[in-house]
Write a structure and sequence with these properties.
single chain, about 100 residues, mainly alpha, globular
Length: about 100
């Protein structure tokens, strides 16, 4: 649902600390490694029908929101970046191109 996704995006944006901007850059994290084995959402085949696929995507969105809420570094945190990339592929496999695009906007 587009409205649910927009609400989730708004909540995630509201969790950003004040004064954080895109222009603010910092050095790399010490162990910023993305592990393919952690990217399990995009490995699903999504052949269980639209209702089950939607239920799965919603659970992945909730897990991603939890990761973002727990992180202080945003996309600099490997778990957040892994989740974003993984969720974007899951969206694309479900023809939710607008959601995949909005994830990185």
């Amino acid at each position: 649902n587009v409205y649910q996704f927009e609400a989730l995006s708004a909540v995630l944006r509201s969790m950003m600390p004040p004064g954080v901007t895109k222009e603010k850059t910092r050095g790399p994290l010490r162990e910023a490694m993305i592990e393919k084995r952690h990217m399990v959402w995009s490995e699903q085949d999504y052949m269980d029908g639209p209702q089950e696929n939607l239920r799965r995507l919603q659970s992945y969105e909730a897990e991603y929101a939890r990761r973002v809420a727990e992180s202080r570094d945003g996309f600099r945190d490997p778990r957040v970046l892994e989740g974003a990339l993984d969720l974007a592929v899951a969206y694309l496999k479900n023809y939710a191109v607008d959601k995949a695009d909005a994830l990185f906007a």
